[in-house]
Amino acid sequence: MRASTYNRLFIAVIGSAMLAACSSTPTEDDTSATDQQQVEREADTRPVTPAQPTRPDYSHIPLTAEGYHNHPSHYDGTTDSRIVYFAFDRSEVPAAAFDTLRAHANHLKGNSNARVRLEGHTDERGTREYNVALAERRSKAVEQFLRVQGVSASQITTVSYGEEKPKARGSDEMAYAQNRRVELNYTAGRP
Amino acid sequence: MKRLVMMCLILGCTSVVHANLVIEITQGRDDALPIAIVPFASSGGQPEADIAAIIAANLHRSGQFRPLPAEDMLSRPSRGADIIWRDFRVMQSEYVVVGRINRQEDGRYRVEYELHDVARGAQMVAASYTGDASQLRDMAHSISDKVFEQLTGIPGVFGTKILYVTMNEGRDHPFELQYADADGHRAQTILRSRQPIMSPSWSPDGSQVAYVSFEGDGLPKIYVHHLATSERRVVAREQGINGAPSWSPDGTRLALTLSRDGAPEIYTLDLETRRLVRRTNSRAIDTEPRWLPDGESLVFTSSRGGGPQIYRMDLRDNSVRRLTFEGTYNARPDVTPDGRYLVFVHRRDGRFQIGVQDMQRGTFNVLTASNMDESPSVAPNGTMIIYGTQEGGAGVLEAVSIDGRVRVALPSKEGEVREPAWSPFL
Question: Strand B41-43 vs strand B95-103: parallel, antiparallel, or unpaired?
Fold first, then answer.
């Protein structure tokens, strides 16, 4: 049941990423004429920075507290995304984060001096030290994912903060969803 | 008197911060005992503290007494010989406390008090103290303790302390470890940090505290901190979790949680020899150990049966048996000083509340009624439990009697307050 939910979401993620890739050029063209004119005018005087690809639009996938951890908008598939979110009471890495974590794995493998610290967090429900233990499971799940991709153990440290360092304040499901997370913090060789 | 001297030593060495906890009684007992605490007569100058008012507030907060308003008193005697018994019988006051404060030539205060039984018209207790102005509050707490013990048969805890963590978002050092009198007054900061501070635990003699601090490198370390000298040392800095320290009743060992071998496991650490002994061995979570008063067993939280439940371990052979069966979430145990009651966090319908289990009879009760109650800590006389809860989205402290009949709130004027730990008798 859970696995099939993940699969469906995963397909949705890949599908929307592909759609976004196909549509990026035309979108860029009609965004604003003034930008283009400016580029043309300045083209002979200085080099033009290549146009940034637009971020895919995931607005058709509702951002709910329940689906927060698997929402594609959190994971851009590059090392720019540095937070992995988790479902309530779970410590499995969500499928939507796989590509992003592979990008981090590739960065770490290609830069042996790079060091990443995986910082695990829970929401505020439950006792504090038990939450430290739960959050450690989350950071270890991310560590395991990176290790399976071939990252050296010496490049990874884990730390668990439990509920002590929430990202979002408040006692509602949306705040909880934002707080159940592992943050990837580079201590050396930041991408 | 030894107690006052020791407290004075503690007070002298740490900075005094603004008292930021005020006690409010939210649920009292119908059968609370009426008592008159007559304002103390003063001579030689106005004292810095209103001793009778502090005693009345203490007794009121226990939920077991109903101090009568001073303005209703028909006479205000300061010694037994002057008491007009009829004046107190009319008010239906069963007991009366009278006393006097004399400021001596050397600037110190001499405080005398007497406790009288109104029905019999007889003195029950009388005593005196001498100390400086900063000790008036200690004297008031000590008198409260004596009166409480005389009338209930249970030692009072008004002279004890509470340790707790505060968090003020936006400050350069948001996390503080503080301690205060049991009535919330005279709060003092022990440690300020940019990183979280967790799980404070008192040494059994009240001279030291152990806690988890993530200071410096952001990794958890367990510290032992001497209150009088502010000297401290790291006693655990292993890879992974260093958490949940709990002092053994004889003061020689800590029980704690380490995950250096993989899953979080309970260890005991001999503070002198530094010898670590691993006590649990399961792939599940084992954490939040607390010693039983016998010093030969622990209670702790474990997920070995699925969700978190509380287990008891005999340290002589590390054998374990499960204690809690009510519901799917029972965690963070504490134990009354007589070893009879287990108090812990119990989840019911998605709400976290303080539960109590009678380990002799096996009965179970929920003592609190909000959504986010946590970190219960039992008073050294076993009558009250202090715990953290939320009020308007911020962490505050509350206390409840072990029978659930009395509840008091300690609202904070600023920031969050959490993880209270009630001191032993000092």
Answer: parallel
State which amino acid sits at residue B77.
P
**DSSP strands (E only) in B186-308:** 188-193, 197-202, 208-213, 221-226, 232-236, 242-247, 253-258, 265-270, 276-278, 286-291, 297-302
Coil, strand or helix: which one is B368? coil
Find chain A residues with C-beta within 8 A of B392's C-beta.
none
CATH superfamily of this structure's domain B161-422: TolB, C-terminal domain (2.120.10.30)
Does the model's ipTM exceed the 0.90 cut?
A: yes
Which of the four CATH numbers 3.40.50.620, 1.10.287.3510, 3.40.50.10070, 3.30.70.3270 does domain B32-152 have? 3.40.50.10070
**Identity of the residue in B214, B218, B264 whose CB atom sits nearest the CB atom of A136:** B264
Q: Which residues of A touch B301 (CB under 8 A)?
A: 127, 129-130
Mutate to test the interface with B, among A88, A125, A132, A176 (most CBs of B within 10 A): A132
> Is A134's CB within 8 Å of B244's CB?
no
SS3 state of residue B270:
strand
**Cα distance from A119 to chain B (closest Cα, Å)?**
10
Q: Which domains does chain A have, with CATH numbers?
A: 1-61 (no CATH), 62-191 (3.30.1330.60)
Q: Are B418 and B372 in contact (CB under 8 A)?
A: no
Task: Compare all CA atoms of chain A with the CA of B240 and give the residue at the minimum distance.
Answer: A159
pLDDT digits (tens, 9 = 90+) for B259-296: 999 999 999 999 999 999 999 999 999 999 999 999 99
Instruction: Please give the model's pTM, rounded to 2 decimal places.
Output: 0.87
Residue of chain A whose Cα is closest to the Cα of B371: A125
- pLDDT tens sequence across A59-74: 888 899 999 999 999 9
